[in-house]
Each structure stands twice: as C-alpha cells, then as structure tokens.
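The methods section describes the discrete structure representation at length, but only in general terms. What matters is that the chain and its backbone geometry are given together, residue for residue. Nothing conveys this as quickly as seeing an actual entry. For illustration, here is how one protein appears when written out as sequence plus structure tokens:
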Amino acid sequence: MKVTTKKAALGGLAMFGAAALLAGCASAPEESNESGGETLDYLPCMVSDEGGFDDKSFNQLGFEGLTKAADELGVDYTEVESAAETDYASNLQGLVDQGCNTIVTVGFLLAPAALESATANPDLEYISIDDTVDTDFDGTTDAENIKPIIFDTAQAAYLAGYLAAGMSETGVVGTYGGLNIPTVSIFMDGFAQGVEHYNEENGTAVKVLGWDRAKEDGSFTGGFAPDDKAKQVAQGLIDQNVDVLLPVGGPIYQPGAAAIRDSGREIALIGVDADVYETDPSVGDLLLTSIRKGIDVGVYDAIIEAGNGEFDPTPFVGTLENEGVGLAPFHDWESKVPAELADKVAELQEAIIAGDITVESYLAG
C-alpha cells in the first residue's frame, strides 16, 4: 500500500518519483498556493485497484484526470495504491481519516468497499469509475453521495471486432480478460458481436476464440497482473492461429505482446482503456487500434465540479455518441488497413450512434 499527498503539477506520472508515505502519515495540505493567493479548502483523493497507477491503462487515466483537475484548482491531492483487494477498505478509511473531500475509486472491484465507506460518511463525495454501485439492482446508485462514471465500451469494441475480422488473414481472432466481471466481459462481448456482424455482411466465418457469447465465459488470467499466467493464456490463443488479439484488463496486454513477439508472426494487438500506442510506445508497432474510455476526462470534469462546490451524483455513461468511448487511430497500421474497411468501420459508428444498430451490453438501454 502506498499513500502520497502532493501539490498537483504538470507532468503526469513523472510525479511518482516523490517519496511514498504510509497511510495516515501524508503531509497536510498547504495553506497557500505557490502564487501567494488563498488556497481552495478542498482535497481530492483517489484509490487504485491492484493494477496500480502505472498500469498504462485505466488506473493511469484516472490518475491523470485527478492531477489535471487538482492543478487547475490549485490544490493538493492524495493518492493511495492498492496492492491487493484486501487493501481496499483500509485504503478508503485512510483517505477518510486524512480529510479527503472527494474520493475517486478506480475499478469495478472497489465498488463494495466504496459503498460501505460512502454510507458511513454521507458528508463526503465519492466518484466510482466502472461501476454503478447498484447492489440491489433497482437501477439506481445505492448512495446519494456516489457519482458513477461508467462506459458502454461494447459499442467501441463492436467496431474493433468488425475491424479485426476484416484484417484477419487466418480467419481466427482472439480475446482474453483478467476476470470475468462486467467491465471486462463488456469489451469481449462487444468484440464478438462485431465479428458476427462482419461474417453476416461478408459471408465469412471468422472465429472468435476466448469468449463464448452463449455461455458468457471465456479465457481469463485470474487477475490483472502482467504475469506468466497472462502470457500462457495469450500463447494458448496464438497457438490456435489467432492473428488479432484483444487482451482486456489493464497491464495484462504486456505478456500478450511478449507472446506475439516470441511467435515471430504478424499478429495485431488491440489495446483497451487508453490509446496504448501513446501510453506504451514499446508495443506501438503491434497495435492495430485501442478501444478507448474517456476516464481521464470523466474524472477531471467530476473533480472540477466538486472542487467548485457543484458535485453532481448523476451517472456519466460514456458512449460513441458523447465520445466517452471510441477507437484510437490506427497509427503504424494505418497503411495496412484497407480504405474500404476503415470507411465501413466509420459507417458502423454512425449507425450505432443513430440507433440503427444496437450493440448488446448490460449498460445498453
């Protein structure tokens, strides 16, 4: 576990070089800002899931949104990094004890602990990334002081699936995830739907390995660590002649990239959450595209509102229409993607936005 309180500054993750402090021992917010003006009496905070803030994916995006907002507001922020799921409750309590006004929880798995903390501290504000915190499934968030930031990534994954099917030369594409939870499987299922649509339109039979829509199950690593298990799962798909690979779960794409390089074959990698070409240039040459979530923008907007006394618990749902989700550019693969296929993907995006195509997901409605 790592807790740090800092004054926000430009430079994003370069700030991780500062010394880490144990929970409850972080330095207090400064009384005045660097320009000598009065400091806003507001402390935004964030707790990661076990992927950590340097996952080059959704934890990192959330952190970048936090630091950008804190910089604009001219305030300190506090972050705490979770090493395991067992850290969640204690990390949240540590942030409460340090006087945080708004606490951002990053990831679906943090939702139960976030609800418990929010219920116990109704005067504090919580922002839940990737979960609606609706444990009784009545369609509403279970605490009035929690704002969900969620993403219907099935829509963008549908486009990626169609693209992958069009790019595949072996007729086999694959996907694997960290855990079989809704925020992971939504990518995999949307991807499979896109491949199905490609087959229907083109009379082809491109196979999807790693996800079974009927069984709602597939290939999973058991967590979000970039470990040997993740590489084994990726290798198992590559051994079945996959030539497009979609890993879903923070840094678990890294062992997948290693398995691709070891294969000596041209296999396209699809990133998730961030534009991985930008966050991890070391795999840039492998990336066909990335399925993006606007986590950084969602967190930034919510913290700015809260810091200005305008916290709004209304859920934000990212879609293709509001640009909360989307596909990243093809970057190094631009010249390899046929213009006709790229145009078709753009047409499908407009059809989804218009409601002419419905992509199934637990957030669709």
About this structure: The two ends are 38 Å apart (CA to CA). Residues 182-202 form the longest helix (21 residues). The chain has a mean pLDDT of 89. Residues 154-293+330-354 form a domain with the Rossmann fold fold (CATH 3.40.50.2300).
